[in-house]
């Protein structure tokens, strides 16, 4: 025997009355303590009902709410930035350890080309040295630059961050087309040719002028120390 179809009651529930709200709050005295965000949503009563007197309380409360929202936004931005900085610092330390474990100039060239992109979340990394009085090691992955190339590229600085740029084939070779932003870091190993550690990203804002350069400088010092130990071993 066929069952009768059941009808679904789609009638919306009646709105909550003011009396019900008041009664609920009386029975739950800690409700606003448990939900402090609601206080910022409530409209406080005016102390004056019309007339020539202006109630500045409303204006002050409105300003305080705006300041609270601004402070909340600043706090969230600070937390996000701190987490990003910690992640970058951890990545840099891991990259430094990989470089120290390379063991030779050949190993250094391999770590820069193969390991640094993944460790530092970039798309390409290269290393090279200027031609000078001392012969450069002939090692795959180590690029050769003409004399004064670093001065023309970096000027007097040690680190250059470029956003919304195109990659220089002299620095990035065939991978220059991948580069939309880059970091160029001077290498100045004692009594050895000057060099350049370069990293490029597809992201136009992967590197930009507002970033700090301390960690890049730290990584350059690690690379310089390794170069001084391994230069003649290959």
From TrEMBL:
Source organism: Telmatospirillum siberiense
Coiled-coil region: none
The name this protein goes by in its record: DUF484 domain-containing protein
Lineage: Bacteria, Pseudomonadati, Pseudomonadota, Alphaproteobacteria, Rhodospirillales
Signal peptide: none
């Amino acid at each position: 025997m066929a069952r009768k179809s059941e009808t679904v009651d789609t009638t919306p529930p009646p709105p909550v009355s003011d009396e019900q709200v008041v009664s609920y709050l009386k029975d739950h005295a800690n409700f606003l303590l448990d939900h402090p965000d609601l206080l910022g949503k409530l409209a406080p009563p005016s102390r004056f009902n019309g007339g020539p007197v202006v109630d500045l309380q409303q204006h002050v409360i409105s300003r305080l709410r705006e300041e609270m929202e601004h402070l909340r936004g600043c706090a969230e931005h600070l937390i996000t930035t701190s987490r990003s900085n910690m992640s970058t610092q951890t990545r840099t330390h891991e990259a430094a350890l990989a470089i120290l474990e390379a063991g030779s100039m050949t190993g250094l060239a391999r770590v820069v080309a193969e390991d640094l992109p993944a460790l530092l979340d970039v798309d390409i990394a290269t290393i090279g040295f200027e031609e000078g009085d001392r012969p450069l090691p002939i090692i795959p992955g180590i690029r050769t630059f003409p004399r004064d190339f670093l001065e023309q590229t970096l000027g007097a600085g040690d680190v250059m961050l470029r956003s919304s740029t195109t990659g220089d084939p002299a620095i990035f070779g065939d991978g220059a087309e991948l580069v939309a932003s880059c970091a160029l870091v001077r290498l100045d190993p004692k009594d050895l040719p000057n060099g350049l550690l370069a990293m490029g990203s597809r992201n136009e804002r992967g590197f930009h002028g507002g970033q700090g350069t301390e960690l890049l400088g730290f990584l350059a010092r690690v690379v310089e120390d390794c170069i001084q130990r391994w230069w003649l071993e290959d």
